[in-house]
């Protein structure tokens, strides 16, 4: 797999941010991948997700949000949304002939959803949300789902069955409103960070490999 590092302009008020572009030998498509609120694009889970997708011939464009790049407090919403859109635009410029999907883990997925709900992201055929943070841990709410039906492209949610930030009952109205555009898959026994209950899963059963299978199978269904 070929790996390169680059920067792109996130927002006029935030400057440039870093990205890691990974291309497998025979790519079938390209996915942007945004990190969560607590760790950047080089977190082990982000690296493992990119590697698992690459083994399935899906190229990835992992990128930083400005707050993670500079090491400070969270950005204004318009800066995060601009970063999502600029990442997708940069990824498309790098591989213009490849079908493009956009998504991320937790906060990164939520920002991607808000960007697409406000206005379709050019060239993006679908969105995938890994461990979508529907509400604070153990405090069920549907406030972060209200915008989801405004997304016009297909959406994939992949969450752990022990994720305390995802409650199916609170997501269900949005799923119903999105009709056949939305798909939800579960990682059995996993929490928000993809940690499984080892006593209930085979030692060789890697949740992030399962996550990659869900994403690539869904991606292929869009073609």
This entry's quaternary arrangement is: single chain
**CATH homologous superfamily identity:** Alpha/Beta hydrolase fold, catalytic domain
H and E order: EEEHEHHEHEEHEH
Quickly count the helices: 6
- Proportion in β-strands: 25-35%
| Apparent shape | globular
What name does CATH use for the topology? Rossmann fold
- Intertermini distance: 23 Å
- Total number of domains: 1
Low-confidence stretches: none
What is the residue-averaged pLDDT?
95
Q: Could you tell me the radius of gyration in angstroms?
A: 16 Å
Order the strands across the largest sheet as they lie in space: 1-2-4-3-5-6-7-8
Helix content: 25-40%
Name the structural class.
alpha/beta
* Major beta-sheet overview: 8 strands, mixed
Query: What is the CATH-assigned architecture?
Result: 3-Layer(aba) Sandwich
Number of strands: 8
What is this structure's SSE topology?
Blueprint: E1 2-11, E2 15-23, E3 29-34, H1 44-55, E4 58-63, H2 66-70, H3 77-94, E5 100-105, H4 107-118, E6 124-130, E7 155-160, H5 168-178, E8 182-187, H6 207-222
Parallel strand pairs: 3-4, 3-5, 5-6, 6-7, 7-8
Antiparallel strand pairs: 1-2, 2-4
Describe the structure.
With 223 residues, this protein is an alpha/beta fold. The protein has one domain: Rossmann fold (3-Layer(aba) Sandwich). Helix content is 33%, strand content 25%. The protein has helices spanning 44-55, 66-70, 77-94, 107-118, 168-178, 207-222, and strands at residues 2-11, 15-23, 29-34, 58-63, 100-105, 124-130, 155-160, 182-187. Strand 3 (29-34), helix 1 (44-55) and strand 4 (58-63) form a beta-alpha-beta unit. Helix 1 crosses helix 6 (207-222) and helix 3 (77-94) packs across helix 4 (107-118).
């Amino acid at each position: 797999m070929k790996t390169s590092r680059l920067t792109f302009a996130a927002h006029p008020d935030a400057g440039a941010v870093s990205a890691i572009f990974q291309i497998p030998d025979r790519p079938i498509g390209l996915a942007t991948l945004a990190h969560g609120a607590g760790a950047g694009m080089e977190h082990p889970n982000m690296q493992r997700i990119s590697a698992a997708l690459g083994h399935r011939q899906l190229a990835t464009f992992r990128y930083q949000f400005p707050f993670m790049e500079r090491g400070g407090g969270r950005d204004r919403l318009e800066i995060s949304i601009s970063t999502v859109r600029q990442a997708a635009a940069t990824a498309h410029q790098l591989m213009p002939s490849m079908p493009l999907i956009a998504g991320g883990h937790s906060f990164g997925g939520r920002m991607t959803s808000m960007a697409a709900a406000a206005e379709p992201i050019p060239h993006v055929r679908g969105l995938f949300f890994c461990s979508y943070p529907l509400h604070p841990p153990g405090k069920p709410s549907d406030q972060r789902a209200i915008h989801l039906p405004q997304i016009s492209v297909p959406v994939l949610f992949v969450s752990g069955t022990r994720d305390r930030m995802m409650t199916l009952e609170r997501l269900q109205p949005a799923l119903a409103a999105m009709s056949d555009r939305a798909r939800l898959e579960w990682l059995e026994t996993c929490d928000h960070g993809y940690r499984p209950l080892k006593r209930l899963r085979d030692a060789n059963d890697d949740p992030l490999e399962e996550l990659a299978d869900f994403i690539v199978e869904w991606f292929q269904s869009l073609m």
